[in-house]
Amino acid sequence: MKIIRDTPDQLILASVPWLLSILLTAIILIFVAVGLSLVFDGDLMGLFFAIFGGGIGTACFVAFVRRVQVIFDRRQQTFTIRRRTVFGYKENTRALGDVDHALIEHTTNSDGQRLDRPTLVMRRGGGDLRVPIVTTYSNSNRSGDIVETINRWMGDGDLDSAPHAP
User: Fold this and answer.
1) What pTM did the predictor assign?
2) Which of 140, 142, 143 is closest to 132 using CA atoms?
3) Which residues of 13-36 are buried (b: 16+ CB within 10 A; e: fewer)?
4) Please, which of 12, 46, 82, 142 could form a disulfide with 35 given CB 3.0 to 4.6 Å?
């Protein structure tokens, strides 16, 4: 996730997985090309290779490639989370006043490596509701920058950190 616009009136964050998209597309094309090449050479196992390999690559593309855009708009007093996948587009807009602050949620993977994701904490009656900005955890250091930018933009310098059970 990176910062697209940071002005007093608007903060826009976006995550577009270009590298993952390109790699998965290349994998799909390689499997299909090799499989079809084998079929044209008379080996019918190439058809299985193309369908199975291309299908797995396509399934991974559908499952993992998601574009996320978060827009904080002071003029309209709203924040919007937009998510686009292969199958569709979802947009959720709420009042900017509903956001209390942003924090970093943590988990660990099977190797014990710490993974993070930026999360918004919403004001909700007597408790807090956490809304992850992105659904996946990452080992990049960008989560801290994103959380710090959101909190600074909203006038809240508190960079909380909360553990999350894996």
Assistant:
1) 0.75
2) 143
3) bebbeeeeeeebeebbeebbeebe
4) 46
